[in-house]
């Protein structure tokens, strides 16, 4: 999908009521989004499927819902106060503030003087040298320093000449300063620093601090998991790419507690299960991959982390992280709170600190993935389609009278009323039948039911499939069973 297709997806999402820019009538509020009638249903479906697969259908996982505001010491213990930071630089010329790695990295070869730059993860060079870079990737600009020049082959000849502002191009920047990504607010009436608290940047810590409460109340034995979904907030510096990275978003997190010696085995199991989960949402397997974090990006507490990545219109990017976090989280809270967050091992007759395998997914990224993967343009039939899997589709079927006369609307209304208590359905009698089909194709509605003159004769209706355009005639008494069958 080209960049312009991403723009088309954005405008479809607005037109059909999936996603709106926050505070649009005031000019919009940066990287915050509102979800409209179809958007909110899609999100509920994503979360319900996740909850059902992770919690309801498993005996070894229980759910919880912790508060967004937590004791400030939580963030000291978790390491967020110290480590949840980005290095920021200011451009002295145009005053633009940006993440250091988002600057334009200008390189030069000390032997042949060839110059190239890395901008937004892309290598830019003069046309005549472009083929020299065919085999290189620009994901880590610093790794180019001292490498062999791809043009003259001179070893260790590449050096970083300058870092420039991505907005105005000036190489006149301040030294980097660390900027914490947590949103600050104040607890109670006092505005002083003693009352400073943070909006949670992840839901996971709410689970760790409740480890004893949940484990005791639910009488869980290792291995077991605690899951929750909820809002998280990060004062992201680089947003962009629609709802991919926003400042307010929703997570679906599972913390699975295991004996430390079993963490590798459970990490493997969860990686496989989570990749499979996305495939079962109907996402094209060719657009999904697993990527292991290298040593340099691995969080200090994690032994290993694998991202499930999706091939978004702007490139492969993280959809979810699955990490073997060892005993770090519980041990940190034990050390900072003085509370024993341990498991009594009956066999060994001693307390152990469980290790944790985490699956951390984003509702918003899953939603963007579903929309991007589902969007296509059917040129032959002049329509834009969202081929969302029926089980995820916000509206399962639309009911139309072919024309607004000859008793068809009355039959259509009855059918609609019967279906409505069982499935999310829509009634539409405005405009030509072709336009009504197209509206539902764009909205991602998998089935359209049309009542025509034959319905009056033999009680049958047509059911049209959004993706294949196949139409079958079904007796009106059997519509619900037919739809339920197809949605399954
Ligand atoms: N507890 C671990 C944790 O929070 P993370 O990789 O920082 O790990 C996990 O975030 C997931 O949360 C990401 O894979 C993504 O789906 C979602 N996420 C993180 N930051 C986000 C943002 N700014 N906007 C939207 N989703 C985000």
Quick summary:
The protein is of the alpha+beta class. The protein has helices at residues 3-15, 37-56, 72-78, 80-83, 204-209, 211-218, 263-280, 328-337, 363-374, 408-420, 433-443, 453-458, 479-487, and strands spanning 19-21, 33-35, 61-63, 85-90, 97-99, 104-109, 115-119, 122-125, 158-164, 177-180, 184-186, 196-198, 224-233, 248-258, 288-292, 304-312, 315-326, 343-345, 350-352, 355-362, 375-378, 383-386, 397-401, 425-427, 447-451, 460-465, 471-475.
Description:
This protein has 488 residues and is an alpha+beta fold. Helix content is 28%, strand content 29%. It has 13 helices and 27 strands. It has helices at residues 3-15, 37-56, 72-78, 80-83, 204-209, 211-218, 263-280, 328-337, 363-374, 408-420, 433-443, 453-458, 479-487, and strands spanning 19-21, 33-35, 61-63, 85-90, 97-99, 104-109, 115-119, 122-125, 158-164, 177-180, 184-186, 196-198, 224-233, 248-258, 288-292, 304-312, 315-326, 343-345, 350-352, 355-362, 375-378, 383-386, 397-401, 425-427, 447-451, 460-465, 471-475. Strands 3-13-14-20-17-16-15 form a seven-stranded mixed beta sheet, with helices on both faces. Strands 24-23-25-26-27 form a five-stranded mixed beta sheet, with helices on both faces. β16 (304-312) and β17 form a beta hairpin. The radius of gyration is 27 Å and the shape is globular. The mean pLDDT is 93. Bound molecules: glycyl-adenosine-5'-phosphate. Glycyl-adenosine-5'-phosphate is lined by residues 202, 204, 234, 236, 245-246, 249, 251, 253, 318-321, 358, 360-362, 364-365.
